[in-house]
Specification:
Elements (H helix, E strand, L loop, with lengths): L12 E4 L5 H12 L3 E6 L2 H9 L6 E2 L5 H15 L5 E4 L14 H29 L2 E8 L10 H20 L5 E8 L6 H12 L8 H12 L10 H13 L6 E4 L1 H12 L2 H11 L2
Parallel strand pairs: 1-2, 1-4, 2-3, 4-5, 5-6, 6-7
Helix pairs in contact: 1-8, 3-4, 4-5, 6-7
């Protein structure tokens, strides 16, 4: 992968999903200032127009839940770049709160459709062009919950564990092609994640009929709380790791963002499962 390009050099191209707000939007602008050509995407036409108006002129409509939308966006990008695609950042996603026994099949399907199958579908669409040019970066937005299972976040935990498994396999299968598969594991980052989670909780969970109704009081309080939880970083912390993953000549398989991610990674290596479970229960409400 090239370093930040100088005037007259070929400009590297990246496709980023989930850019309507938060991490995706911030990373798009951060990379643009470093000389990348940004194909920022969002699933609503109004958000795409807002991105274009703010200076991301190649913004595209892309709904990761729809194969036709993915194909159209990728085909449009490749037509504009004459087949060049240096990287994709699979950032789009959301978190479905709720105890697993309260979540119907449809809620889990919706969670996996966006967080796992959507990322997989986008990756499949860009890989032929990357193989043809002999290089590329697949950057997946994972989470501390991709390796630590917190209670009342089971759907999201499962989706990120799945994304990690897909990416580890992809890294093996792409060995020797010049294409790297990388995970960025974030903890609490300023975004609309909690607000979006609250709407999903209200859609799928009947708290009054649940054996977890007492615990849900804490869940809804957390999702509604003003301000950020402890150790929250702003989106620039993710952008810095993304830049490292994109511009390093030998990227790490995983990049950790926020103190909780680093701490839990260390604890998982050092402790037995039941000891770790006790710590998780005390911090995971």
């Amino acid at each position: 992968m090239p370093e930040t390009p100088q005037r007259g050099e070929t400009i590297p191209v990246i496709l980023i999903t989930g850019c309507s707000s938060g991490i995706g939007r911030h990373c798009a602008f951060a990379l643009q200032t470093r000389g990348w050509r940004i194909f920022a995407t969002a699933r609503r036409a109004g958000d795409v127009e807002a991105l274009r108006a703010d200076g991301l002129t190649d913004a595209l409509l892309l709904d990761v839940d729809c194969d036709d939308s993915i194909q159209h966006a990728v085909d449009t990008m490749l037509a504009r770049t004459r087949g060049r695609i240096d990287a994709v950042f699979n950032n789009a996603g959301f978190g479905q709160p709720g105890a697993l026994e309260d979540l119907p099949r449809a809620a889990l399907r919706e969670q996996f459709e966006t967080n796992v199958l959507g990322a997989h579908a986008v990756t499949r669409r860009v890989l032929p062009a990357m193989r043809a040019q002999g290089h590329g970066r697949i950057i997946q937005h994972s989470s501390v919950l991709g390796f630590i299972g917190l209670p009342w976040r089971g759907a999201y935990n499962a989706s990120k564990y799945a994304l990690e498994g897909l990416t580890d396999t992809l890294r093996q299968e792409l060995h020797g092609t010049g294409i790297e598969a990388v995970l960025i594991q974030t903890g609490p980052v300023t975004s609309r994640f909690r607000a979006n989670g609250r709407s999903k909780f209200e859609r799928w969970i009947d708290a009054t009929a649940s054996p977890h109704r007492q615990a849900y009081a804490a869940v809804t309080e957390r999702l509604s709380r003003a301000g950020d939880p402890p150790f929250t970083k702003d989106a620039d912390a993710v952008a810095r790791r993304l830049i490292a993953a994109l511009e390093s000549t030998r990227p790490k398989p995983r990049y950790h963002v926020t103190l909780p991610t680093h701490v839990f990674k260390g604890l998982k290596r050092a402790l037995g499962t039941r000891t770790l479970d006790r710590i998780v229960r005390r911090t995971g409400g």
